[in-house]
Amino acid sequence: MGMKLISELEHESSVPLARTAMVRAILQQPELVTKFPNLDPTVLLMVLLKQEYPDLPDSICRKIVPSTKEVQGDQLPWNRRQRRQILRARRVVVHLYSGPDQKTWKKLEDAHTVVICVDKLINPKMDMMNDQVMLFLMKLAMKGSLHGLIGGPPCRSVSACRYAEDGGPKPVRSEAEPYGLSTLSPAQLEKVEEDVTLLFRMMLLYSIAEHYKVGWCEKVLFALEQPQDPREYRSNQDVQRHGYMSIWRMAAWKSFAAKYGLRHTCFEQGAYGHVKPKPTTVAHNIDGLDELQGAQAPRTSVESKRQEKTLEERMAESSTWATWAPGLKAAMIEGMRREFAKDEDGCRQLGAPGNGRRQRGTLRPVARKPNDYSRNCAPYQKSL
């Protein structure tokens, strides 16, 4: 029994390395894809990621793509009835890293729309590092029903608080080393790579959803919330001293934003009801959110009292700041409602008598020429 377990562990540890080697070979010789028609879909999606984001480390690339091809219902946080409701919905909105507040976002639901909030604070199984959850959402995107994807991935590894020199956690990323400083311990590097993985999984989901969207859906709505680049609101002297790290300056992000025409809106959430000023940037394609641009929060004496607290108290307090301001939530919901209203008009037009895209009350994705996403994601569709 012991030898059998050792053999299985050795096999499992060798598979990721073999996949990485195959990815490198295909990147160097793209014609290898045609010679191996039954390649592991995990390898193919890793190739796609490395083509789009060449500086993405292999270790993170392996974590982004699910290592399994089959969805196991008992490993998901939704029961069979909930999964059936999600799969039958004409439109699905997914809010990743939403926190415990589901009630606010459920306001978007109607007869044709289902909202999914994904956060470990709601259910321990709602972990975006869980391959089963990621695979289920990927298949939902390939089905053509994922019409909205919003979220704020953890920003602990890029927080400006790391540069405060108050005895708290030190910086772990930089502009030169955006995926983790070379001086980090294995435990620190693991946390950094997890943060990066959560960001790129959201980006990958959107890319798949945008490719497989149905004909009447003008665009898949997207909104990513992260701290504003400190270089945009701090003094030149402060910036020169600390440097600061921001995802908005990462080459991979710039490429993604340019490809999908995303706009960046910068404001302070304190102006919309947050307990802190919280300088924020939202990258999005939702009309109306631009009106938040430039809003500033009033400064209070509470800011100065923070330094009087112990390190443990400050860290516990900062963990509560991830919640979005009530005004930001309201603006996001209103903007998405307006965008969905436009899509409904298009849906009604496409649903007119004689329209070939409507069959038995369902709307099918528009036929597209095969590209990287359709080829690389196809093997994942079998167990939907």
Describe it for me?
By secondary structure, this protein is α/β, with parallel strands linked by helices. The chain folds into two domains: 2-69, no CATH class; 77-349, Rossmann fold (3-Layer(aba) Sandwich), CATH 3.40.50. The protein is 41% helix and 11% strand. The protein has helices at residues 2-28, 32-35, 41-52, 58-64, 80-88, 131-142, 186-212, 236-242, 251-260, 302-305, 311-318, 326-350, 372-377, and strands at residues 91-96, 113-118, 146-151, 221-227, 263-268, 279-284, 358-359, 362-363. The strands form two sheets. A six-stranded mixed beta sheet has the order 2-1-3-4-6-5, with helices on one face. A two-stranded antiparallel ribbon has the order 7-8. It is globular. The chain starts with a helix and ends in a 7-residue tail after the last helix.
Q: At the first level of CATH, what is the class of the largest domain?
A: Alpha Beta
Q: Biggest β-sheet, characterized? A: 6 strands, mixed
Elements, N to C (H/E): HHHHHEEHEHEHHEEHHHEEH
Kindly provide the radius of gyration, computed on alpha-carbon positions and rounded to a whole number of angstroms: 22 Å
Number of strands: 8
Helical proportion, percent range = 40-55%
Please state the average pLDDT score: 83
Instruction: Give the helix/strand class.
Output: alpha/beta
Given as residue ranges, the uncertain stretches (5+ residues, pLDDT < 50) are 351-365
The tally of helices reads 13
Q: CATH fold name of the largest domain, please?
A: Rossmann fold
Adjacency order of strands in the biggest sheet: 2-1-3-4-6-5
